[in-house]
Design goal:
alpha/beta, 9-stranded mixed β-sheet
Length: 304
């Protein structure tokens, strides 16, 4: 029987996987890993099962065994839809990658598309679009923008704030599920499915505003993003974005959540390298995650 995305295709393997999840929730990660190993014996081609097995092993303190399983998953599918390379980096078994695989990010947000806004806004107290708009309007109180590009637009939460002050509004996102939600809101003039570095190359200076609300947390090295944004803008154009805050470093780190956090000094240097000057940079709480306040940096910059 052919495996599906979240099931192995073997009933006994699926039952053992369900028991493994129950043991993991109860905190017995060793038992969970053992049951998942049994499931994988019956369904050796089940990619998600293999990655979950590695996660159980990692939680049980079996880092070497977990690393071996994650590497098996990468050999099985180099597109890495379940973030095995990020998990290897968290184990210290590989360097932190500059970015996750696009397949991982797209799959992650496709999975959450239906309940995304309810979970993010109502339960996790997500505030980034409002915070960014407040800073942007403080920096440019009378500004009206001819064309704005919303990077990683998701379901359109940032777009809802941008629409009243933009003559044209375009969006791009990796997740087809998120774009379906955004399309129903009729906020955007165009919506593109793809990596933010693949944003359509319109004539130089096409966008006088580019935004990235809670998007750059899924990228490590931001220099290519800033350079790409600059290629779409002209002097005096605006860039508004959020990042999670990294402390104790001048660069970026991969957090246990598998999101990236960036030091303000890193942002300063990366922006300057792309030709941007910072107008304002403010620390703030972006949202909550597992009851913890997530500290971030909100940045408004202009292309010089």
């Amino acid at each position: 029987m052919r495996p599906s995305l979240h099931r192995s295709g073997d009933d006994l393997a699926d039952r053992r996987a369900e028991y493994a999840e129950a043991y993991a929730r109860a905190g017995d990660h060793a038992a969970a890993a053992d049951l998942m190993a049994q499931a994988m014996e019956r369904a050796p081609d089940w990619l998600l099962g293999r990655v979950r097995w590695g996660e159980f092993l990692a939680d049980a303190g079996e880092a070497d065994a977990a690393g071996a399983v994650f590497r098996q998953a990468l050999r099985q599918d180099e597109a890495d839809p379940y973030g095995a390379r990020l998990k290897l980096a968290r184990l210290g078994a590989e360097p932190v990658p500059d970015a996750p695989s696009p397949s991982f990010v797209a799959g992650l947000f496709d999975q959450y598309a239906d309940g995304f806004e309810d979970a993010l806004v109502r339960r996790l107290d997500y505030r980034v679009p409002d915070l960014l708009m407040a800073l942007l309007q403080e920096a440019a109180p009378e500004a009206r923008f001819a064309a704005a590009l919303d990077l990683g637009c998701g379901t359109g939460l940032m777009g809802e704030r941008l629409k009243p002050i933009c003559h044209r509004l375009d969006g791009i996102d990796l997740s087809a599920g998120m774009l379906d939600k955004a399309r129903r809101k009729r906020l955007y003039d165009t919506l593109h499915e793809g990596d933010i570095l693949a944003a359509p190359r319109l004539p130089a200076g096409a966008y006088d505003l580019v935004t990235a609300a809670d998007v750059l947390t899924y990228l490590g090295d931001l220099r290519p993003v800033f350079a790409h944004a600059a290629s779409l803008q002209g002097p005096g154009s605006w860039l508004a974005f959020s990042t999670e805050l990294a402390s104790g470093t001048d660069g970026f780190v991969l957090r246990p959540s598998l999101r990236y956090a960036h030091a303000p000094t890193y942002l300063d240097a990366a922006l300057a390298g792309a030709g941007y000057a910072i107008v304002s940079q403010t620390a703030g709480t972006l949202r909550r995650d597992r009851g913890e306040a997530i500290a971030g940096t909100l940045t408004i910059a202009r292309l010089t």
